[in-house]
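Data availability (excerpt). The following record was deposited with the supplementary files.
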Amino acid sequence: MTNAARAPQKGGLEDIVVSTSEICFIDGQQGRLVYRGFDVDDQR
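Predicted structure:
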């Protein structure tokens, strides 16, 4: 075995792409979810 440093592992599903979507957009950096062109946090 070597004592070489290992790259740190990321927790959870960070940077994991499960599928692409034509109907929604998720912006994790801004904390936004847009569904069919409407921000889910917008209230009418």
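Summary of structural features: The beta strands are 24-27, 32-35, 38-39.
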